[in-house]
């Protein structure tokens, strides 16, 4: 039985489109995100991503990478393997402004007793932001949790400061978006793959 040219064309198009989707990066607000990344030699998958909007201004695109997909903040905080979140700036901000925003998000989502456990790491993290004079549109801040090493921060691929050892500190950072008082209520479900 001969297939019609239209049927063959549609079959070919379907196959081509299906193959084109393999390994393709996700895109959020015009920012291309890798479907997977390697941290500490382990492949992490994109768990979710979204845009941080303040009033009507897009501030950054945030992506969360985990070893396996999770849709529950508690399960993410309990995971012991490597993790990554990355911010791709959508507008210009100073490092100081970015650092202050992180601190405000941590303060809103942790209690004083929890923060007192990593006061040195908070200071160290703040210093890392001070060393970034200006973050421009397209710049990236990447923060990895590397088991046996700690929290490692990068600005445009260049490490900022020394690793910070306490996993509780990394979780406090994640709580900025995944805690009970996230800085952007629409970003939390997006990072959990529900957006």
Automatic annotation (TrEMBL):
Keyword Transmembrane annotated: no
Record bears the keyword Isomerase: yes
Domain of life: Bacteria
GO MF terms, alphabetically ordered: isomerase activity
Keyword set, alphabetical order: Isomerase, Signal
Signal peptide segment: 1-25
Family matches, as InterPro entries: Chalcone_isomerase (IPR016087), Chalcone_isomerase_3-sand (IPR016088), Chalcone_isomerase_sf (IPR036298)
Domain Chalcone isomerase: 25-193
Transmembrane segments: none
UniProt-recorded name of the protein: Chalcone isomerase family protein
Organism taxonomic ancestry: Bacteria, Pseudomonadati, Pseudomonadota, Betaproteobacteria, Burkholderiales
């Amino acid at each position: 039985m001969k297939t019609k040219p239209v049927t063959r064309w549609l079959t070919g198009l379907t196959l081509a489109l299906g193959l084109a989707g393999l390994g393709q990066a996700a895109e959020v607000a015009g920012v291309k995100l890798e479907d997977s990344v390697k941290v500490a030699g382990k492949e992490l998958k994109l768990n979710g991503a979204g845009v941080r909007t303040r009033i009507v201004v897009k501030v950054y695109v945030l992506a969360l990478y985990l070893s396996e997909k999770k849709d529950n903040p508690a399960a993410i905080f309990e995971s012991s393997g490597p993790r990554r979140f990355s911010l791709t700036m959508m507008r210009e901000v100073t490092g100081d402004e970015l650092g202050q925003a992180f601190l405000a998000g941590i303060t809103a989502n942790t209690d004083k007793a929890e923060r007192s456990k990593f006061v040195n790491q908070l200071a160290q993290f703040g210093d890392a932001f001070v060393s970034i004079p200006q973050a421009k549109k397209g710049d990236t801040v990447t923060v990895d949790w590397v088991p046996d090493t700690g929290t490692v921060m990068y600005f445009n691929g260049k490490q900022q400061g020394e690793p910070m050892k306490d996993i509780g500190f990394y979780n406090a950072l994640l709580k900025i978006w995944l805690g009970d008082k996230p800085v952007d209520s629409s970003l939390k479900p997006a990072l959990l793959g529900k957006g």
